[in-house]
Specification:
Blueprint lengths: L1 E3 L1 E4 L4 E4 L1 H10 L8 H7 L13 H5 L2 H6 L26 H14 L1 E3 H18 L8 H16 L1
Antiparallel strand pairs: 1-4, 2-3
Helix pairs in contact: 6-7
């Protein structure tokens, strides 16, 4: 089973977290600052720089009025900042517009398997057990089974 991570808002030229994934991430403790922090780390050579892949408040603030009109808070908006997707070591090889378009297309189509999501939840939960026991989810495997069962029933 796969789940779509983002929904693209054409009018605002930005993303919001897909409600189905948002619910799963919240249930499994994959939230940190937002539900996609851990995914950003993979996109940035698997390091903590990736947790900041949507730190672009100036771009969100520019959308505040439009977001309000459709009932969204700017904290829910994820805007692609093409500068975050280059490192200036041996390039860049593409223009800002090309990078923005590429990452828009990637994120529009981004789906992750339940297996990948569950494995990340398990990994993070083990870290929490050691580093932040109050955040540890003792019934994580029960939650995973519930999500699996619920979503299996949706496809039948």
């Amino acid at each position: 089973m796969m789940v779509k991570i983002f929904n693209y808002l054409e009018d605002l030229k930005c993303f919001v977290v897909n409600p189905e994934y948002k619910l799963i991430a919240g249930t499994l403790g994959l939230t940190e600052w937002h539900e996609t922090v851990w995914i950003g780390r993979f996109f940035s050579l698997d390091n903590d720089y990736g947790e900041h892949w949507f730190d672009n408040w100036h771009q969100r603030e520019a959308l505040q009025e439009k977001a309000k009109q459709i009932g969204l808070d700017i904290t829910e908006l994820f805007v692609i900042d093409p500068d975050r997707f280059k490192n200036n070591v041996d390039g860049p090889c593409h223009s800002d517009a090309q990078r923005a378009g590429f990452w828009r297309d990637v994120l529009i189509s981004l789906q992750l398997s339940f297996e990948t999501i569950f494995n990340e939840a398990r990994r993070i939960n083990l870290e929490k057990k050691e580093l932040d026991p109050e955040e540890y989810i003792s019934d994580l495997e029960d939650r995973i089974r519930e999500i699996s069962t619920t979503n299996r029933n949706k496809t039948e």
